[in-house]
Amino acid sequence: MNIAIVGFGRMGRKIYEKATLSSHRIVSVIDSFSSDPLVTDKNITAESLNGADAVIDFSAPAAAVGNIKKYADLKVPAVIGTTGWTEHLAEVREYVEKSRGTVLWSGNFSIGVAATLKIVSFASSLMNALPSYDAAVFETHHRMKADSPSGTALMLADEVIRNLDRKDSVDTECQHSKIGENVLHLSSLRVGSVPGTHEVIFDSDVDTITISHAARSRDGFASGAVRAAEWLLEEKRTGLFSMDDFINSLLGV
């Protein structure tokens, strides 16, 4: 598979490494700001993509929607790992489907995180029978992360909201007063070089249940993104896909 990488920060470099080890060929590295000698172009065009079979994009939130539309127009399947843009998801879905593009997006491409999401979904539904437990989400990332909360934390919060009847909204702000019983509090910490730690907490007067995922490195994210690009090409898929579509296919569910 010929791969173009868009965004050559920490994740872009890790994807370059993982894709090369998997015998894929990197045909283009695009980044508007990086001076790395591996960068081949500053802008996304048909020429700069250089015949790529797929794009893996971990760029900037402000560029995400425009980039996705370019990939859809150019008919190049794209894996989008950039977070902080999903308030435009409905607009993007309409554009990709109208253009018959191929895009898979996720706030996290770790297979372990995908499994954690399914566990949280099931656990949240169980908690409907246990009203004494409150719920919350907590995440920690390195201090250079550009967005807060993380895309993964929002995905976890969405699973809780979708399955736990007594929670119907998410609050990501610092709290200075009592929080409503219907509100799921999502809090974030930025410190050091933490690749990513996420916790879903169910707390009662007598005990606490915690479901957590801690990344040891970015390897799992990069490997999952490369595998996602392979999946998009397997059956010449078209449309806008999520990590849930991908993992369900892998698990046969």
Overview of the molecule:
This protein has 253 residues and is α/β, with parallel strands linked by helices. The protein is built from eight helices and eleven strands. The protein has helices spanning 10-21, 46-49, 61-74, 89-99, 111-126, 151-163, 219-234, 243-251; strands spanning 2-6, 25-30, 54-57, 78-80, 102-105, 134-141, 169-171, 183-190, 197-203, 208-214, 239-242. The strands form two sheets. It has a six-stranded parallel beta sheet with strand order 2-1-3-4-5-11, sandwiched between helices. A five-stranded mixed beta sheet has the order 7-8-6-9-10, with helices on one face. The chain is globular, with a radius of gyration of 19 Å. The mean pLDDT is 94.
Number of strands: 11
As a percent range, the share of strand residues is 15-25%
The helix fraction, in percent, is 25-40%
Weakly predicted, low-confidence segments? none
- Which structural class do you get from the secondary structure elements? alpha/beta
Task: Please give a quick description of this structure.
The chain is α/β, with parallel strands linked by helices and about 250 residues long.
Highlighted features:
alpha/beta; 5-stranded mixed β-sheet; 11 strands; globular
Give the topology, please.
Layout: E1 2-6, H1 10-21, E2 25-30, H2 46-49, E3 54-57, H3 61-74, E4 78-80, H4 89-99, E5 102-105, H5 111-126, E6 134-141, H6 151-163, E7 169-171, E8 183-190, E9 197-203, E10 208-214, H7 219-234, E11 239-242, H8 243-251
Parallel strand pairs: 1-2, 1-3, 3-4, 4-5, 5-11, 6-8, 7-8
Antiparallel strand pairs: 6-9, 9-10
Helix pairs in contact: 1-7, 3-4, 5-6
